[in-house]
Amino acid sequence: MTRGQDGLAAGEPNALPNPSAVGLVAVIVAATDGEPRALTVQVAGQAAGRETGLPAGPLVPEHPTLERGLRAWVERQTQARLGYVEQLYTFGDRDRQGDDSGGLHSLSVAYLALVREMRSAGLAEASWRNWYAFLPWEDWRAGRPTALDEIEAALLAWAGGTPDPKLRRRREDRLGLTFGLGGGAWNEERVLERYELLFEAGLIPEAHGQTGEAGSTDIATTGQPMGFDHRRVLATAIGRLRGKIKYRPVVFELMPPTFTLFQLQRTVEALSGANLHKQNFRRLVAQQGLVEETEEVTSGTAGRPARLVRFRREVLLERPAPGFRLTPSRRSS
Amino acid sequence: MTRGQDGLAAGEPNALPNPSAVGLVAVIVAATDGEPRALTVQVAGQAAGRETGLPAGPLVPEHPTLERGLRAWVERQTQARLGYVEQLYTFGDRDRQGDDSGGLHSLSVAYLALVREMRSAGLAEASWRNWYAFLPWEDWRAGRPTALDEIEAALLAWAGGTPDPKLRRRREDRLGLTFGLGGGAWNEERVLERYELLFEAGLIPEAHGQTGEAGSTDIATTGQPMGFDHRRVLATAIGRLRGKIKYRPVVFELMPPTFTLFQLQRTVEALSGANLHKQNFRRLVAQQGLVEETEEVTSGTAGRPARLVRFRREVLLERPAPGFRLTPSRRSS
DNA sequence: CTCATTTATGCTCAATCTGAGCATTGTGCC
DNA sequence: GGCACAATGCTCAGATTGAGCATAAATGAG
């Protein structure tokens, strides 16, 4: 098992060679054409065959800092400067690791990284995938996701499927809180909680047999599975990012040097999974002073040409570094 | 080095026995009489003698989940139900671990826990300490901390102490961003960034020699040191908690079953380190529906008796689970 | 060339939300 | 009784928000 100088070996199967080893996982996010993408790799699955997963590998003590090591590795893989890197969470569940053959604990330290360009040059087995392929119920941009009809039915059945009235009540409460069932609102940040609920309810194939019930495994409804519980990591990343853009100007790390306000809006919408009121969005960006105009305007596209703007890096040094408040509109179909 | 059944051994020196081991660290927070406290223990210092630190110990694979294991351990130690547990961060800097004798990487997974009662029964070497003893510049409740005068002077000297004009500019920018120097505002959430800046500037004794400069080490100014870079963990916890109370009703985990609105306000102020406008605070709590009145009122204290209220647990199931927006007032001296 | 379509941009308006205070009401204490 | 100290009620102006209306400036179909 010789490795190069990389701490993380992306293309390789990431079955942990040493059960007590610590691993790194990265959710590397880009946004192109208004779609949110995550870098995925093909890994050796638990069963035979290969399956999709996130870039991951064992932690090697090459760099003085976890983040520094991750940064260097990702930048080499994606040929892109990392605009933003954030530690997400350290997962240590023995029952969710995928391989718990050894009795020893193994940890995965997960990171979120935002990149501007999406050339994945070199990396043969890696590809950028729309992240909603894995979590279809999270995309409300075209209105309520159709996947939710089936999901809700299955969840209600799951909640009602227990004889214990107290447990049933608790399950129903969780449904209301996470999926907005029973009059609650959809909170776009509760991505992880929704995934975990589906997992418990047996709707996630990765849970194979761990939770008694078995439900629909239609990929169009419950999304494409990933190896090693990596969908949980992805869900964590999306939820975190959706929260972050509201109070920190991190979206700009995904944008090209100059862009139009509408492109910016599309990107924010892609991340948050909801549509925004256009005029109010520009007003927000304007008064926060997040961007400055360039001389150029777009051309060739449909509609009136838009002015190109660029991110005002100075805002990072100003006030409580603002982001975007998200307020869904009814612009959807 | 026999240990009990506890994954974390609090009273014991936590010099990692195996340099590749993963450790847990916990910031256990309580609030009594309007003061924020953290549970501390005495540990064997890097040099001779004992010094203060946070409860920590090696991770043992006893529980299926990291959080579950930490929860069980803390509850046993503090004799209190943990209201809230949150993973903070995983620290992996080789140059900050305190002992980096072995070449291997060692990680510390840090957790934040909130407890209601503060009986630390049993635990001989543990004690609750006002967390501002370790970070005196973070407490603005009695007005601008006097410690800041000296700190600012030292920081300005540090920033100006480099010949490279670009580096100097960057340092000054960071001073403005974190400490509000040069016209910026004080952002109470940037606790960690402030600590790290002081660390870099050589004002933190724990940095002994790692950063060239050596500055004031007056404890009243730069706070009481901790072993193993645990002050960084504490700073992370405080910053995180200060952010959290603004949008999640976590303060209530620190309150007794019933309390007055003013006690609640005192607790929020203790955590955030800033004073709030009283009338607006109650208005906020009222319209958010965070509490419900009880029959009882206080007596024996100075001033008009206050109505006792209790937390409405139902809000956890309602809307985007609100917290407190903090807006400092000028009530301070 | 003209019109329908599409996107960009400017502006308005009412409903809230916020930050700051003023005023009044109860209690324990001297 | 008069004070000091809290608890509560209410007001008010300014800023923020959520929703639209209206207009301008391109492209592409016919």
Automatic annotation (TrEMBL), chains A, B:
InterPro entries documented for this protein: NMN_biosyn (IPR011213), NUDIX_hydrolase-like_dom_sf (IPR015797), WH-like_DNA-bd_sf (IPR036388), WH_DNA-bd_sf (IPR036390), WHD_NrtR (IPR054105)
Superkingdom of source: Bacteria
Residues covered by the NrtR DNA-binding winged helix domain: 251-311
Pfam families, A to Z: WHD_NrtR
Name of this chain's protein: NrtR DNA-binding winged helix domain-containing protein
Protein source organism: Methylobacterium marchantiae
